[in-house]
Amino acid sequence: MMLPGLLYIIVMFYLPMLGVVIAFEQYNPIKGIFKSKWVGFTNFKFLFQSDALFQITFNTIVYNLIFIILGIGLSLVIAILINEIGNRFLAGAYKSILLLPFLLSWVVAEYLLFTFLSMDKGLLNSLLAQFGVEPVQWYSEPFYWWFILPAGYIWKNVGYFSVIFAAGIAGISTEYYEAAKMDGANKFQQAIKITIPMLAPITITLLLLQAGKIFYAAFGDWGMFYNLPKESGVLFSATNVIDTYVYRSLKSMSDFGMSSAVGLYQACVGFILVLVSNFLIRLYDRDSALF
Amino acid sequence: MIKRITFPNFLLNSMFMVYCVLCLIPLFVVLSVSLSDEQSIFQSGYKLLPMKFSLDAYAFILNGNSPILRAYAVTIIVTLVGTVLHLMISSLFAYSLSRKEVKYRNIVSFLVVFCLLFNGGLVPWYILLSKYLHLKDTVFVLFIPYLVSSVNVLIMRNFFTHTIPESIIESARIDGSGEFHTFLKLVLPLSTPVLATIGLFTAVFYWNDWFTAALFIENGKLYTLQFLLQSIMNNIAFLQANSLTAKAALAQPDETARMATCVLSVGPIMLAYPFLQKYFAKGLTLGAVKS
């Protein structure tokens, strides 16, 4: 019974791992992996000389930091606040509405965003016009995207994280809160002293999962960086991340060796990030760390 | 029990209501644009409410041989076949990993976990599927790459180990039931919660997947909904493929047809969501909280 699944992961997950040798080849699609010319570190030399590398690494790391801190922090607050709402029907309704964006694809999100940001027809510009402000070209000014992308991330993911946190809160024994009430702790103190520490294991699991996603080339959640800015080249300084870079170089240049080298570089950066976050978690709580 | 409406609670509720409205407004705008008259959009841009109500866009994109109906068919087939196969292979795999008498199960479990930590990257994966498995431009490539996911296998394995009582399987064996029969007749019916949630998430994943089609599909007949949507965003000509004269093209709704396509692609999810959201919430917590 194990056979189909085992064969599947070997072919689909483990064979590509061997394929990283392409990074050291001048890959020729006709000759295939085994017969292409071996070029050693040439691909990496080109990569490290290009200006794009620093930019995509910087963007990837900074965005992920923003996402992790803002996303998880905000979800935690929302989960605690929803828990305080007495009316269970309303609380349930809020949770389901917040979760809804999680089910939509980034392509759909692109459409949604476009209705707001379109230069001549968008809602935002017509709103600005009412206040006599000149229309803004959202799709050609990189600076705005440092805010738009995190907002998009939060819109899509906060519901998902807060449902997880809410489940964690539901699992906390009510005795703690009763004891705290006896001691005269108010809601805020209860949240700081009981709820948040009790949720630490879930928070840490989520943190590690999110950190791990960074080096999940192709399978991570990078559709946002690709779709929301509508492929606008002017915006690359604020929207290009490692994943979109690999995808574009594969799609447009078909330079397999080069994009494979970026992929390998990404795996290494991601691995270091996981090690760092694991180290930080170990400092805080040995038991919750991965290794 | 009637609760008094207190001021903090009122504040909390209004805060959440504002947030929910913010979550939903973009969807509402797309809907209202799709229901507007093309001329009014052209003159005054996107509006929260349709200035002039019109169903032209829907009539236009749903006419006889439109690419959208085809994309719908492709997406539905891929979603159905993919989800069913995913559940079959993954549950068999996870079940065998959960049985203690299976040899080498620890090694195989490690192989599954390792996929979470490292992968070969986009390029080797692309080459494997297109050059060695010859899946490029076939309908199979749309579901085959995602038939097993290590996270789902681990979730299912945990479920099987913790909720299926050992004694049931043993008693079945004493009654002479074969392994496969036991799995089908006893284990699967007891596992509907985990199957339902993982099935739902897989289905949503397949429905929302634009990336696989973008990489592997060139034949316009195999476009999935999301990929079609993405192409339309960049190039409205897709919708006008069947217009014969330039004059007819002028009369066709552009903007509204775009948005109507978007509405149609989200439609099924939006319609099913109220009934399914309980399972979604459960599924999320199933995946995140360690057992």
TrEMBL record, chain B:
PROSITE patterns for the chain: ABC_TM1
Segments passing through the bilayer: 71-95, 107-127, 139-160, 183-207, 257-276
Gene3D superfamilies per record: MetI-like
Top-level lineage group: Bacteria
Membrane topology: Multi-pass membrane protein
UniProt keyword Transmembrane helix, yes or no: yes
BP terms from Gene Ontology: transmembrane transport
Main location: membrane
InterPro entries the record matches: MetI-like, MetI-like_sf
Protein name listed in UniProt: Carbohydrate ABC transporter permease
